[in-house]
Design goal:
The complex is a heterodimer of chains A (about 220) and B (about 900). Chain A is of the alpha/beta class. In chain A, about 30% of the residues lie in helices and about 25% in strands. Chain A has one domain (about 5-205): P-loop containing nucleotide triphosphate hydrolases (Rossmann fold), CATH 3.40.50.300. In chain A, strands 1, 2, 3, 4, 5, 6 and 7 form a seven-stranded mixed beta sheet that branches. The termini of chain A are far apart. Helix content of chain B is about 35%, strand content about 25%. Chain B has a seven-stranded antiparallel beta sheet with strand order 4-3-2-1-7-6-5, sandwiched between helices. Chain B has a six-stranded mixed beta sheet with strand order 10-11-9-8-18-17. The chains are: A alpha/beta (about 220), B alpha+beta (about 900). At the A-B interface, β2 and α7 of A face α5, α7, α16, β26 and β27 of B. β2 of chain A pairs antiparallel with β27 (about 690-700) of chain B, so a sheet runs across the interface. Chain A: It is found in: Early endosome membrane; Golgi apparatus, trans-Golgi network membrane. Chain A: It catalyses: GTP + H2O = GDP + phosphate + H(+). Chain A: Keywords: Endosome, GTP-binding, Hydrolase, Lipoprotein, Membrane, Methylation, Nucleotide-binding, Prenylation.
Chain lengths: ~220, ~900
């Protein structure tokens, strides 16, 4: 009941990748603020957001890195893959080109993260059914072939946004539970926080994003 | 002078408040504490000086908080310029301070009404000091500039305060006062603010919970390493002085408690309270008539005993076999229609309190704690005092106190004192900060309170009782009277007494004390309660139990308990968490950048260009930014670029200019000549926040500096007249020349010839030709000439031409001795024949340059007298120029202790290689 621990016991690092304009930042904003950002500027850099969620009764803090999608930054954003526990790979269902580039994003994700990183494919803008350019079935098949989790979502309506982030966390948590994700590995993207006897943790430090990916 | 906590939005930081007086004038000085506890004057910095005059208002924010002993007192201080809220520790020091301020305000009003307005000139001087020290930040008093750590804000501590321009007596007096004050502060400074309650239910008022977070944050280990290595000293100072946002846990609790009504439902539960002074007797009676005399079984029992054991052992060692005996007796007699579980038992000598709850309710009882307070002999021993059990039932906090107060008719004031002692000393720990009795929702106080009937003789009392005039006797009841005049049990309620006095009977009977003392009957044994939503159903004595000289008392209550509606709780909880997440995201460091793309056009060799980026801290917290390396790179930017500063700390609202400097030198020229673009992306990383990508681009105007010998010999015209594509092609494929070039290549690059020719004609007899650097300005002229191929106009000093030659050779894309021959040359450096052999293998154009320059060196040496040049000097100089280690081999793979020797050895080999060709004629 009320006296239960408020603190989170894990930190999961996520990255969001995908072509420019597919709505990565909007997905992040929708997830953290429950709001749609209508005129979202292009991300020139890497945005950072956090939220605490609950999976199987465990509080988990998500640290989400939303990367710039522009091709010219591709080399730089590769710095951020390292140490991600989850990668949300986003395309725009109304622009086939963004879907066609998925294999290249996937290659990066596979090469630059650890084998246990959960990759979740999101077909964004599902609210724009009339302009659909990529069918659900096609993307679902792509996801299945590549062992990805998949959902179509809408950052505008919020549809499935929560689910995508939470499903990813559940999968990561499951990997921890069944031992396939080694928390001690430097790049697991997960930090376990041992119980501190209900004593709280200072906010000003715990939001510190891990930066090791960019310093080497 | 008191310590207090400045409350500002979500941030709390400690302050020291001091009332300073100078003659008649008084002012409140507010200091920031750089260190706690404050030990010396350097630990505090004057933040504000508020003269106590007409506009000065100091009020206790909410009266309700005062009712809570131990809670901090929120004090709002308002002047025309300032409006701040402090939390001051509860206690006499604060109340004294507060009254002093009130007095000062009164004093001011009195003075002004008498037409003697106070000047406060002395305060103004301090205010000026503060402004000076704060001008680096925004001048908003108590704005975030308060974060300015002492080290950067030029602290004006007590001693360092600039002396007034004219040291008049007033000022001296003031200084004296001040010194005293400071000392007194230091004496009391170690006494920290009292602990605070951790539980959400105990949190009262907005300041409470977050304060708690403030106090605990320093003790918490950090989950994620902040990268303390990179934290500057400035930041560390900051960290200790200010703890932003505090602790999430505390804030969540606070918000949940504020919204408690949204997720709790009141449900009635029945509580049985019983008390009995058993006069040291053993449990030889069935307690059923006392504990199970109602039809409905209660949900919770709290049963208290006094004088359980009067033996010396119990008193001295607090060890009693009676405990077990009476526990069993009680347990057996609990209501037969329900199963009960013992929640807690606590005993101090003869005082014992046992709490039971129905089995099925036990899981809703949490945070159980028990404490004892002795107020007996010497005010400490356990023959008198109280024992208490607190617990949380669903979402309502309960406390049960069983006490045995001082005896004897005339000792009612002592009883009041015992009550007060128990209140102040009964602290339930284990919950972070200790909890007082008063910090509970439902309080039940039972026991042998020992209050008697005053002013009536034993016979009078008995007479009234016989006539069933209990109400009249009650008028003389000491407890009734003490409560009425608010001397004890303030805030408590006692139900109407409809039962006979419970003391003193002859043991084993229902007849009044027949001993010589003939004590007047009294209601020694009582049950009181305090709290909303408590309804008393019954309050009674139990005559059936006879073993003691007291009769047991019991009471039944219905308490509306806040039970949690899980669904609604979850909803509110999620809402609170979300709100906090949002806040947390808002508190991430934020900056705004003036520009994200920088274009440097027509960058030329060794001509620096600069552009600046302004970084403004647009967020609410201090920011540290840093340019960080990209994946697999060992510097944050390309070699031709520099950012200054590359790491910086910015206070909220402040702005920092970052200069981007583009400078192509011999290290970076050749790759740019070979077609690498002038492009880079820098990552500006905010410590604890997001990253920005800054694009740098531009075009480089190729120069013969940094070109390859192969390309240069095929350029008949100035390099700038050659199409860039062709240039890149020539650089990328030096050997394949015939197709592109219609004409014969030069033997050596014309630039080399021009410079040498100039030196040959003008400089052979100039002393120290290569030793003295040319004037930098001339150097620029020189290489502009080289770019444009205008050798006729070579101007400036001969020294700068010489320097240009050296620079030119050094910048060659591949050195005169190509990299592949580097090691060979070193290996054979002391054998001229082998040297010649190696030389004959290098490409022709390179060999030509080598021959040309060594010939020039020999020429110079002909004029040794005038030129003051020496073979060895020249050999060393040219050796370094001609022989450069291949890329990636610059660092020697030797242990550090031998590195210096190895470097010298290589330098000697380089020199001796060249030396061969300077002292010997050489021709193929």
């Amino acid at each position: 009941m009320a006296a239960g621990p408020y603190n989170y016991s894990y930190i999961f690092k996520y990255i969001i990748i995908g072509d420019m304009g597919v709505g990565k930042s909007c997905l992040l904003h929708q997830f953290t603020e429950k709001k749609f950002m209508a005129d979202c500027p292009h991300t020139i850099g890497v945005e950072f957001g956090t939220r605490i969620i609950e999976v199987s009764g465990q509080k988990i803090k998500l640290q989400i890195w939303d990367t710039a999608g522009q091709e010219r930054f591709r080399a730089v954003t590769r710095s951020y893959y390292r140490g991600a526990a989850g990668a949300l790979m986003v395309y725009d269902i109304t622009r086939r080109s963004t879907y066609n580039h998925l294999s290249s994003w996937l290659t990066d994700a596979r090469n630059l993260t650890n084998p246990n990183t959960v990759i979740f494919l999101i077909g964004n803008k599902s609210d724009l059914e009339a302009q659909r350019d990529v069918t659900y079935e096609e993307a679902k098949q792509f996801a299945d072939e590549n062992g990805l989790m998949f959902l179509e979502a809408s950052a505008k309506t919020g549809d499935n946004v929560e689910d995508a982030f939470l499903e990813t966390a559940r999968k990561i948590y499951q990997n921890i539970q069944d031992g396939s994700l080694d928390l001690n590995a430097a790049e697991s993207g997960v930090q376990h926080k041992p119980s501190t006897g209900g004593r709280p943790n200072p906010l000003n430090t715990d939001q510190q994003p891990s930066n090791e990916g960019c310093r080497c | 002078c008191v310590e207090g906590i400045l409350v500002q939005d979500w941030v709390r930081s400690s302050r020291l408040l001091a009332l300073i007086d100078c003659e008649e004038d008084k002012a409140l000085f507010i200091y920031t504490c750089n260190k706690t506890p404050v030990i010396c004057a350097d630990d505090i910095t004057l933040e504000a000086a508020l003269p106590i005059k007409g506009d000065f208002i100091c009020n206790i924010e909410s009266e309700s908080s005062m009712a809570l002993p131990g809670a901090d007192v929120p004090v709002r201080i308002t002047t025309n310029e300032t409006d701040v809220l402090f939390e001051l520790p509860f206690g006499s020091k604060t109340s004294h301070f507060f009254s002093q301020i009130k007095q000062a305000i009164g004093n001011f009003l009195q003075q002004t009404s008498q037409g003697r307005p106070l000047s406060f000139q002395w305060v103004e001087r301090y205010r000026l000091c503060i402004e000076e020290s704060q001008q680096s930040g925004t001048n908003d008093l108590f704005g975030f500039d308060k974060f300015q750590p002492a080290s950067t804000a030029q602290p004006h501590t007590v001693e360092k305060t600039p002396p007034p321009a004219q040291q008049d007596p007033d000022d001296l007096a003031f200084e004296d006062n001040f010194a005293d004050l400071r000392v007194s502060q230091i004496d009391s400074g170690s006494e920290g603010p009292p602990g605070l309650s951790p539980g959400m239910r105990e949190s009262q008022g907005s300041s409470y919970g977050s304060r708690e977070s403030f106090t605990t944050s320093s003790t918490e280990e950090n989950l994620v390493d902040v990268g303390s290595g990179s934290v500057t000293g400035v930041m560390k100072t900051m960290g200790s002085a200010v703890r932003p946002v505090g602790v999430r846990d505390g804030i969540v609790k606070l918000h949940m408690s504020k919204r408690e009504s949204e997720f709790t439902v009141l449900k009635p539960f029945r509580i049985f309270i019983g008390t009995w002074n058993v006069n040291g007797k053993s449990c030889a009676e069935d307690l059923g008539p006392w504990l199970a005399c109602d039809a409905e079984p209660p949900d919770i029992y709290a049963v208290g005993f006094q004088e359980l054991d009067l033996s010396k052992e119990a008193f001295l060692f607090n060890d009693s076999p009676r405990e077990e005996e009476w526990l069993r007796g009680v347990y057996k007699a609990l209501h037969p229609r329900a199963n009960y579980k013992k929640i807690k038992l606590i005993r101090l000598v003869g005082m014992m309190l046992i709490v039971f709850a129905k089995h099925e309710l036990a899981s809703y009882i949490t945070d159980v704690a028990a404490e004892t307070v002795g107020t007996g002999i010497m005010g400490k021993m356990g023959n008198k005092g109280g024992v208490g059990v607190r617990l949380v039932f669903h979402n309502t906090t309960f406390v049960f106190i069983n006490s045995h107060l001082a005896a004897h008719v005339e000792e009612y004031e002592r009883r009041n004192q015992d009550y007060n002692d128990i209140c102040s000393r009964m602290l339930f720990k284990d919950f972070g900060s200790p909890l007082h009795i008063s910090q509970h929702d439902a309080i039940f106080w039972l026991g042998d309170l020992n209050y008697r009937i005053s002013e009536l003789s034993a016979d009078e009392v008995k007479g009234f009782i016989r006539k069933d005039m209990l109400r009249d006797v009650y008028e003389y009841d000491q407890l009734n009277r003490q409560m009425r005049i608010q001397k004890a049990f303030i805030g408590f309620t006692e139900g109407e007494i409809n039962f006979l006095p419970t003391y003193k009977y002859d043991s084993g009977t229902d007849s009044w004390d027949s001993s010589e003392k003939n004590r007047a009957p009294a209601w020694c044994d009582r049950i009181l309660y305090r709290g909303e939503s408590i309804r008393q159903l019954k309050y009674r004595g139990h005559m059936a139990l006879k073993i003691s000289d007291h009769k047991p008392v019991s009471s039944i209550f219905d308490v509306q308990v806040k039970t949690i509606d899980e669904k609604r709780y979850k909803k509110v909880y999620e809402d609170v968490i979300r709100q906090l997440d949002r806040l947390e995201n808002e508190f991430l460091p934020q900056v705004s950048l003036s520009k994200l793309e920088f274009v440097f056009s027509n960058v030329m060799y060794k001509e620096e260009q600069q552009q600046s980026l302004s970084v403004t801290n647009s967020g609410q917290v201090p920011v540290q930014f840093e340019f960080i390396n990209k994946l697999d790179e060992n510097k944050y930017c390309k070699p031709w670029l520099e950012a200054e500063p590359s790491m910086c700390f910015i206070m909220p609202g402040d702005k920092v200019e970052v200069k981007f400097i583009v400078l192509v030198d011999k290290m970076s020229a050749s790759s740019l000549n070979a077609g690498e673009k002038l492009e880079d992306i820098l990552i500006l990383h905010l410590d604890g926040g997001k990253d920005f990508f800054i694009s740098i681009s531009g075009n480089y105007i190729p120069s013969s500096f940094g070109a390859s010998i192969e390309a240069l010999v095929r350029m008949h015209g100035p390099i700038r007249e050659i199409p860039i594509e062709l240039l890149f092609q020539m650089e990328s494929d030096p050997s394949n020349s015939q197709q592109v070039e219609p004409f014969q290549a030069f033997d050596i690059p014309k630039e080399v010839w021009m410079l040498v020719d100039h030196l040959f004609r003008n400089g052979t007899k100039v002393a120290h030709l290569f030793d003295q650097g040319g004037l930098h300005k001339n150097f620029f002229v020189d290489h502009a000439c080289i770019h444009l191929n205008l050798h006729r106009f070579i101007a400036g000093s001969i020294h700068s031409v010489a320097e240009a030659l050296l620079e030119f050779i050094a910048a060659l894309r591949e050195p005169v001795i190509p990299y592949v021959y580097y090691q060979k040359c070193l290996d054979c450096s002391n054998n001229f024949v082998l040297c010649k052999q190696v030389l004959s293998q290098i490409p022709r154009s390179h060999r030509n340059v080598f021959k040309y320059l060594t010939a020039f060196a020999r020429e110079l040496l002909l004029y040794k007298e005038e030129s003051k040049l020496h073979e060895k000097t020249l050999a060393t100089l040219l050796g370094e120029l001609f022989l450069r280690p291949p890329p990636g081999k610059e660092v020697l793979q030797v242990p550090p202790n031998r590195r210096q020797a190895a470097i010298q050895q290589i330098a000697r080999k380089k020199a001796s290689f060249v030396y061969n060709f300077i002292v010997n004629e050489y021709d193929e």
